[in-house]
Amino acid sequence: MNLKSLYKFAISMLVPLFLFGLWWYMAIQIKNPVILPEVGEVFRLLFNPMTNLISMGSLVSNIIVSLVRVIVGYCLAVLIAIPMGILMGYYSLVYNLLNNFVGLFRPIPPLAWVPLVLAWFGVSSLATLIGLEQGQWYIYLNNVKLSMIFIIFIGAFFPILTSSIYGVHSVNKTLIDSALVLGAEGGEIFRKILLPAAAPSIVNGMRTGLGVAWMCLVAAEMLPGSLSGVGYLITHAYTIARTDIVIAGMISIGLVGALLDYLFRLVEDKKFGWQRLAR
What we know:
mainly alpha, MetI-like fold, 14 helices
């Protein structure tokens, strides 16, 4: 690590260290672990992530369950939003047909869907969907409730869709017209011009959508039928006044979310770093 990188790291740590110091001081002054537990109590949980917490499994096992739920809902959003966004961005007829309809649902927050989702899906899961009623796979798939997948899907869908439409709209029309003049067919235009040019915007939308999907996780895991996951762990810990577990769960959500965002930024820097040079 060179001197410049070390300086940047030191600057980035100033605010977190200040907040941890403030937390430590306030916890000593309040002297009530239900209101604000000490820093050491929370970090003891974070540094022992395999410890069984209030008979609900370890922090790691609950995070894995949450990640599976997010990945399923997020992948479903990607598979639907990107093709739909490309079609809306390229074909004006499809855009005019769907834009106002989609615009009606975009401002609705994912939490507002909860009553409808419960009425539609109840406590059905992926195990219910494929007809599993017992066995090890039933245990795994029964944790992935359809209601949770829908909430996470809604959270991720609209950022990905909007960025896909914008990315295709932003493609230089001269490139497409030139390809048509040279005899390129529709499939070649999509593969060689449209997708490469729109990819940076699409990937940015995927990154934003993943962040929103992860934020929707806690709301999804508060729905009936949930018996695991870091969101449910936080909710249950609150009911028994284990604020240290609540804060440890919140920090875990933040760390995993930051890691996922970092991985996306690595992909953006590696594949689309040329954009900064083109500006």
